[in-house]
Amino acid sequence: MSHAATETKGARGPAAAVAGAAGAVPPTGVKRFREARVAWIFLAPFMIAFLLFLVWPILHGFYLSFTDQSLTGAGGGFVGGANYAEAFGDATMWRSLANTVLFTLMSTVPLVAIALVMALLVDTGLPGQWLWRLSFFMPYLLASTVISQIWVWIFNPSVGAANELLRAVGLEPIAWLQNESTNLTAIVIATVWWTIGFNFLLYLAALQNIPGHQYEAAELDGAGKLRQVWSITLPQLGPTTVVVLILQILASLKLFDQAYQMMGGISSDTTRSIIQYIYEAGFVGYRFGYSAAISYVFFAAIIIVGILQAVLLRQRKAEK
Amino acid sequence: MSTTIETPDPVADPPGTARPVKGHRVVRSSRMAGAKRFSGLRIVAFAALALMAVGWLLPFLWAVATAFKTETDAALGGLDWIGESGATAEAFVSILSQGNIWVWAFNSLWTSVAITAITVFISAFAAYAFSRLDFRGRRWMFVVILASIVIPPQVLIIPLFYQMLAFNLVDTHWGLILPQVVMPAMVFILKKFFDAVPIELEDAARVDGATRFRIFWSVVLPLSRPILGAVSIFVFINAWNNFLWPFIVINDTLLMTLPVGLQTVISAYGVQYAQIMAQAVLASLPLIIVFLLFQRQIVKGVATTGFGGQ
């Protein structure tokens, strides 16, 4: 996994290339001992928090997944792989996983493609730069609660703006969030609006790192603006797109906040994400052991995605 | 809105990048030349951009419009921007006078500031040790921290809650803050920055007899202001908007953060759309104002940190 991280970072331009050139000075003897002591003092606060709030919960959660621990304090006995066996035979677990994957597929494509279009348009240098940035990035600054309330209002089946618009153009209104065939789509729409600003900024930053002289050269050769975008800009955005895609897929797989809140906390078979199921099993059903087991199934899925991405990245690199 | 602090920023402005001329107009000079020319393509691009911007602003503007309606007008629906009985600030007044919104806003502010301060502080010290100091286990420890970036915090809610129960921190602000201060990605980002700081600067201070702490505190940290700012912005936005963990660990209404508190009001108000939109708008204002004031820094900060792995 660490490889995937390093490699994507490596694609970040000159700043990254400088990194790593300067390392620690290799001291010897007493000096080295003293430096190690200073190092441990510098490291201690972070490492203590790291061990306490990350390493320990990971290990303890793994242990809990083999017990029948309850939130009420009851249970706690070792049950072997029973929780995992139950999870793999649990239709609701599979359904939640399928919802999460479906949401990821539905949201990732528009979140990357539209963000790219936005960034390309803003990078043309058209007047009104601050307004474009504000429009596209502002929703990202809103809390999940706020965007959920706004979209629940817009998707209100009787008086919401979405249906008023549909009626205005002569279409039938839709019970967006109440209908099981449309509620995930409604959540995808709200999510695209909410989080696109992040991808937009990543693309914008990448675009501004493309040296201007390349465009000058192309212009001298008589290449039009569209031609320049096609042959200079887009090819150079390849590495950025890989990073944006990876971050987006990982973010989409962690769906919970907006889906849970837009549905008003209701557990619908078509919108329940895997994290919502973890939450429900643990804090509604009080089954900590079972909930921990599902957490690990999800964690394993994330790792598999991560390994796949690392392999793909390596292949890309090898091709170059 | 042109609050430009012209400090050198080696991270967001790698050598070879043309510095933006002034304020918020980040445009390369070469493209400016082409930009001045009148062309059909530019008109199409402008129209597309304007259309998208309007589309993206509409949902929020619609919430603002609803918030300024009377409850009766709001419940009528329709697509009018101003209700039949005209615009009114009634909804805002009742939210501000009766609700807990002030308490939640304060809770959000102080816990987010605490999370940001602690995270940046402990991550910077650790990152410096990994970047410049020599100690046994430096390599593998850094690899472990790097690998832990992939752990989704959401899978830890069960054991973390269990731990908070044991520490007696459930339903306290420290229970909310502490688990959020471990952000391995920030250590990675800061280490990469420290690696690129010229070592000669530190050597000079060392010749003068400065201790490691002194070198770090008065030579390296001041040089790192841009990256520290970027990391802080990123951590703060995430902490301010975090929902799942505060939702789980806090039950007391008066200890809730803004996102969690607002969510409890939906059911209490029933169908009072104007009031719900008023509080949604109010809750969004702080970050929107901060964004308007520091747009350039935030845009850079998010891009820099975002690429560093979230």
Q: What is the structure about, briefly put?
A:
Chain A is 71% helix and 0% strand. Chain A has 320 residues and is mostly helical.
Report on this structure.
The complex is a heterodimer of chains A (320) and B (310). The two termini of chain A are 21 Å apart. The longest helix of chain A has 36 residues, at 29-64. Chain A has a single domain, classed as Orthogonal Bundle (MetI-like fold). In chain A, helix 1 crosses helix 15 and helix 5 runs antiparallel to helix 12. Chain A is mainly alpha-helical and 320 residues long. Chain A contains 15 helices and no strands. In chain A, 71% of the residues lie in helices and 0% in strands. With 310 residues, chain B is mainly α. Chain B has 2 domains: 29-89, no CATH class; 101-307, MetI-like (MetI-like fold, Orthogonal Bundle), CATH 1.10.3720. Chain B has helices at residues 29-36, 40-67, 71-76, 90-98, 101-132, 138-147, 157-167, 173-177, 184-196, 199-207, 212-223, 225-241, 244-249, 258-269, 273-293, 295-307. In chain B, helix 5 (101-132) crosses helix 12 and helix 10 runs antiparallel to helix 11 (212-223). Mean pLDDT of chain B is 83; it is low at 1-36. The interface between A and B is large, with 127 and 128 residues.
Break the fold down into its secondary structure elements and pairings.
The complex is a heterodimer of chains A (320) and B (310).
Chain A: H1 2-10, H2 14-18, H3 29-64, H4 82-88, H5 91-122, H6 129-137, H7 144-154, H8 161-168, H9 183-207, H10 212-220, H11 225-236, H12 238-253, H13 257-262, H14 274-284, H15 288-319
Helix pairs in contact in A: 1-15, 4-15, 5-9, 5-12, 5-14, 9-12, 12-15, 14-15
Chain B: H1 29-36, H2 40-67, H3 71-76, H4 90-98, H5 101-132, H6 138-147, H7 157-167, H8 173-177, H9 184-196, H10 199-207, H11 212-223, H12 225-241, H13 244-249, H14 258-269, H15 273-293, H16 295-307
Helix pairs in contact in B: 2-15, 4-15, 5-9, 5-12, 5-14, 10-11, 12-16, 14-15
Subcellular location (chain A): Cell membrane
Domain ABC transmembrane type-1 (chain A): 97-309
Family (chain A): Belongs to the binding-protein-dependent transport system permease family.
